[in-house]
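Our preliminary data section would be incomplete without showing what the modeling component actually yields. Below, a chain of 290 amino acids is followed by its predicted structure, encoded as tokens that our downstream tools consume directly.
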Amino acid sequence: MEYQIRNGNIQAVISDLGAELQSIKKDGTEYLWNGDERYWSERSPILFPYVGRFTEGKYLLDGKEYEMNIHGFARKFAYHVVYQEEDMITFELRDNEETYGMYPYHFILQVSYELRDNEIAVAYRVSNCSKETMYFGIGGHPGFMVPLEEGLVFSDYYLEFGGAARPERIGHTSGCFVSGRNTEFMLEDGIRLQLSHSMFDDDAIVLRNMADEITLKSDKGTRQVKISYPDMPCLGIWHAPNTEAPYVCIEPWTSLPSRQDIVEEFKYKSDLIRLTPGEQYVNTWTISIE
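Predicted structure:
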């Protein structure tokens, strides 16, 4: 089932399957990727309780082996709506027998979408209902249409960070696992990354130590999208490799994938969030349509 929220400026549609955004419109223009299966069938999945891949699709916890697919399972389940107003909605997913077999914790994941003028605030709330410390990663994976206006092409657009920096690019293997060989990622004037389809031929660009907001824009057009992620230390930038896909994903993450050929011991992966019994974690990031 799909739910719509709106205010005087923008409208958003969200599915209860995965609590996934399906549409963001302003003045009749669609900004969110449309899920064309020729390139990528998803639109804005939630990544939980892990971001990226596990070696062999497995991890270890307290000596026991578990299996989990790429980006976790949160996008695969139907959520319940627990709160709704005209311009806000909150979805909830609780652990069940299937999730417990992949991830042995009792939890509540709430995902809220709230419209604020020209902005969508996306809030994640994770509650640990277990009797032991819970470990997890979480992140967003929204795709945006490129171009956003008729008469423009993909290469007319660039990504502009909110402040000059010298970010670190996370090295990855051909299988998209962390390699440990990180490099400095050069930006034009310390802030700008010009888009081209070929930049994704080796899959995603994953950055760390960068400014905490980024804007998709073109000097030839007026429409743009700004993503702000003050509490997300990692950022993925991606579209389907070796294609001319007309979108780009801007993905704020809390953590990174596993290492090549190492079945990770989950609780010793240093970038995961640790949540004690009864504790709640909250992280909010925003999408601004400008």
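The CA atoms of residues 19 and 269 lie 27 Å apart. The chain has one domain: 2-289. Preliminary results of this kind motivate Aim 1 of the renewal.
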